Amino acid sequence: CALVTGVQTCALPIYTLVELKKMRPDQEIGLLFESVEWANKGDAMIEKEAYHPDLKLLDWALEWNTNQLPLRVWTVNEDKDINRCFEVQIEAVFTDYPQKALQLKENYER
Asked: What is the mean pLDDT of residues 3-18?
């Protein structure tokens, strides 16, 4: 994923992000991955400002993220998973239910 003029876009494969970073060195890149293999491969290939792991890799990513980059997890739809992300202070979640996530966040912050 890359943040382009305030809009988040996703580009796969990783090679596309490598090329984008060459063209726009100041471009914020978030490494999107759904497997440990792609996380390690992408981490070695590209300069990035955030990690975007699949929800199933959340616990692994929390341990693996020694660079302390922001974690933005996808796709987080269940209440228990959204609340877990709040508990471990994930920077952002990608969800199919943004209104529900905002309500849960509001309840969590009380």
From this structure: 63
pTM across the whole model: 0.84
Collect contacts of 52-57 with beta carbons under 8 A, ≥24 apart: 52/1, 52/94, 55/81, 57/33
Contact 29, 1 (CB under 8 A): yes
CB atoms under 10 Å from CB of 27, counted, come to 16
pLDDT in tens, 59-79: 999 999 999 999 999 999 999
92-93/72-73 β-pairing:
parallel
Q: What b/e string do you get for 76-95 counting C-beta neighbours within 10 Å, with b at 16 or more?
A: beeeeebebbeeeebebbbb
